[in-house]
Amino acid sequence: MLKAGAESVAELSEICAKNSSFKAPDGNCYDWIEIYNGSMKKADISGWGLSDSKKNPYKFTFPENTVIPAKKRLVVFCDKKAVSDKFIIAPFGLSADGEKAVLTDRDGNKVSEIEYPSLSDDISYSKYSDGSWGISVCSPEKANVKAEEVKTVSPPVPSHESGFYDKDFLLTFEVPSGTQVYYTLDGSTPTSESEKYTRPIRITDRSESENILSARTDISAEYATAPKQKVDKANVVRAVAVDESGNSSIIVTDTYFLGKAGAEKYRNMKVVSLVTDPSNLFDYDRGIYVTGKYFGSRGKGGASPWTAPANYTQKGDEWEREAVFEFFENGQKKLSQNVGIRIKGAATRYVFQKSFSVFARSEYGTDGFSYDFFDGESVDLNGKAVENYKSIVLRNGGNDNAYAHFRDSINQKLVSDRNFAHQSFSECIVFIDGEYWGVYQIAEKVNADYIKSHYGIKKSDTVIVKNSVLESGTEQDLKDWNSFLRKYAYADMTNPENYEEFCKEADVQNFIDYFSVQIYWSNGDWPPNNTASWKCSAFDGENPYCDGRWRLFLFDTDFSTGLYGNTYTSYNANGFSYIRSQGDNFCKTFTNLLRNPEFKKQFAVSFMDIANCNFTERKAERIIKQYSQGQRENILDTFERFYSGGLTGKSGVSRLESEYGKISDFYERRYGYAVDNMKNALGLRGSLYSLTVKNDSDSGRISVNTLDLDKVLRLWEGKYFSDYQVSITAHAYEGHKFSHWETEGIELSESQKKSGRISFRLSSDAVIRAVYE
User: Fold this and answer.
1) Which pTM was predicted?
2) Is 230 inside a domain boundary?
């Protein structure tokens, strides 16, 4: 086996990142990498790794008995989506804009590492007999011959960068020598058959031009209507340079906002411009946004609209389409990169305004988004803002689409401090190929990348089970999760040994917090739907989350807080009874846990902590107003864009005000019902008493049970049942020292009064004050 620094018997010899002529045995053209054995003996590369990343050198591991004969070449096709047992396919793509290729032996020694430049169609980066590398015409499975006359085609350079402009202008291109530039204005892919660039292009306000994509009505199993008004529009210009030999440059894409589309309401917001060939979305055979060739019944004697098959219900790699993602904030372009997009969601795929999953992949050019989309609200274990994402979601509000739109955002903001993984959200306006597509939520995805960025856990060590389907991990991990649920759904949880085992296998506080908030919200689309569990399969004493315990992940909470006005989402709904009525092991496990006295005590106290702090009417109303007032015009514009048949004008305003009224009413009235339901479900016999905590916030802060009260908070009030003790801790700041407690309605011993942490049962309404020196 080769050691570091030894002469390689097999090494990288040629890379083609834009193959359109060399066909694999299945007839398709994939990107490829060639490995050459220049020695006089065979080279066994079994167990070697091939990758486009130094950090992950074994993205593909060569199987046993992979042998390259002496003086022979092995071509490895590279494609994330393709699978074959007839020839070798590495599960990653190659970026035509240039990146790295790494070959590593089975001992982890780097054998070959090449950083190749931007490449055109059927142009490769090759190693020659003299050891030098250069650009040449592709020669797979053949000796590489220098071809210095072959050069990559430089892209055209626009005179103006993507962004917001106050007035019309003429766009020009710097045309590379020896080339002709071709362009499109509708998002389609420019080729030598497109409009030839011969004079400046006038960029002006296009909002009064005819609707094209937004006029489509074949986008739902229900009867979609086209907007009655002309939607706001941006200018999308895509250009390519083509030389005399027909070689093409990379495509340049820019978005320009003027006039109505450049108005302050967009300029001061986050704006996403998605640009893709319209056929990727609207073609009958391959368009991912339309009913298309898979369309089934509209519901008359057949499937309901939300279950009818259509193109947009199709999933998987083959239903991912390449697009350009441009991101603007406060009028400035922050990101512009090629991405993959898919339709996102379950039943909500049928609604007119659809959600998108957006993927940054190396085969598109950039393996990630380097930006803090959530203004510092998404943080890692150290409290540092997450600024790198492999994927994001452009969410249409889920079930809340065409209602308040932001129920999920409101809910998850209210509980962002609790002990579970949750999604951060931000609001943005989306344009597709230059046409207004409404207000969206930018959201984090529930996947292994989230666990890595938030909890510092390797993706290879991450297990996620979402809606009973394995999202990340092995089949054995899925079996372990199902076995875990079966075990604790039927075990005798009054037995302390069984509960002790549960505590070793699950994060108890995580389970408690998760069930508490879902029950409080009256989430009608949960459980067992919209559930996700995760764990780390490795153990690391320095990372508290690498302990092998199961935890729950919060997502999709919008079917709640009064949505649709049904009994499941009402403020007086009894979530405990609903869970008890379900027959799945997930629900049975929770119901069974309530039989354990320790779990019941911890749940009762934590449930009241959350009700007293996270769901107060004052806190809820403050966040509700951020959306009901701050996003009012954007929501109404979205109503008119997609629901002009029934939500325009007064009807749209009425719907908006009604929905936010329901949310406010829910949080105003929910407390009493939720607390009574919890008391009855747990069989509590005590009384509910008020506890007032006073604190000198300049000297210290206070924690109550699981709550770490705001550092500037001087007065706090909550209610607790007398069945269980309340724990309070005073944390003195540097330069101060806790002295004692002053109380009304609480009997404390002299030693308790001087202790910084005390526990007591309420027997009446009470007041406690922390005194510092």
Assistant:
1) 0.83
2) yes
